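Example (one chain per record):
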Amino acid sequence: MATSQAAFLAEKTIGHDDNAITEQDITNPAIERAKYADPSGETMKALVWMGKNKVEVVDAPKPRVVEPRDVILQVTGSTVCGSDLHLLHGTVVQMQKGDILGHEFCGRVLEWGSEVTKFKKGDRVVASFQIACGQCMYCKQKLSSMCEKTNANTIENAMYGGRTAGMFGYSHFTGGFAGGQAEYVRVPYGDVNLLPLPDSVPDEKGLYLSDVLCTAWNCVVDTGVKEGDVVAVWGAGPVGQMAAEMSFINGAKRVIVIDGGHGAWRLDYLKKKFPKLETLDYSKLPKGESVTSMLKKMEHNGPDVALECVAGEYAKGWAHYFEMLIGAETDTSEIVNEMITSVKNYGRCGITGVYVGFTNHFNIGSLMERGVRLIGNGQAPVHKYWEQLLKMIQDGKLNPLDMVSHRVLVDELDIIYDIFDKHGEGEGMQKTFVQTRFSDPPCEGSPSLKTYRK
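Predicted structure:
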């Protein structure tokens, strides 16, 4: 927590750049009620960050229209993402107590600013997790996650040599915007960042266009999975699951998913959903074997493509664990090294799991000598893909409910975070649909509501 606070104070001292055209650091309407809270005084349930490894559901003010292109949504569905855990753990810096979390959500249009003309009250929409202006160089190419105009954070620019777009519920490092794990949410540039949902697509399917479907699809197509490829996917969580399915959609002949330890149960979960998947449990390797050696036994010279759908904060060995603990690195290179050594010569490796800073012991020699292509897939440009993926849902080619294991209440999100932080082990929690008082009844195929608070 000290690092996060120090980074936030450093940003305040240095000051934001002048590139953003939407107001920054409105992570909770309560920070200045007269300016950001609805004048009715209405409150909402919202999940807020309260410090490292601590979140709480609180009563927060309902947001108001702040800028002329804002849209206020009644949230009808949200979810918890694996990358939310990086905020919980303090891996992503510049969090402040009271920040409202959540970057995946859908809802109904309630109010809008004077320059929004495309929506009417009650329209069903899904939000992209990134906030795009629609006008800059990247937005014109639908590379919405790299918008130049919605994130003025100076430290991110200095660390990375460039910025991402602003993002909902994902710290002041990405602009400081209140998230959608709440009953209401303010969407800047709502005419750009909301996609209408047709009646044929219920919230339990449309919600996931917000992030996970686009992230998995971007991982697959950006890394170049093609007809006849053998693909290895690290991580059997929701992104890994959908990346495996989408690899088959893109023509892969074999897909091998790697996971283990507390997440090993997910391998069986995926196998039941997609029997043609192959799995590898890294925590049950034969003596003397490694993930790399096993993959090369399963496929001559290893897979053609490796997809990283985990993240850099989860050390497998003691060396990286202690180096991260003392701040000698922010991310472990273990999974990336496994990918590089596992693929065929001139193989392709794509990184979609979150990596925030620097790593040690990176196997650059194998990368160079064997011609391995290492691709940072980046934060997925949702606007580039969401219309295509929506049509795939409508046509029955893609069913997001395959990954949805639980329907839960927004009031109990603090409990859900705790379960999710344990990899869903014992609860079988793969992906959630979080309902609010505004949600429709469950659609066909949706899990029934499960409550936890006694």
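Caption: The mean pLDDT is 93.
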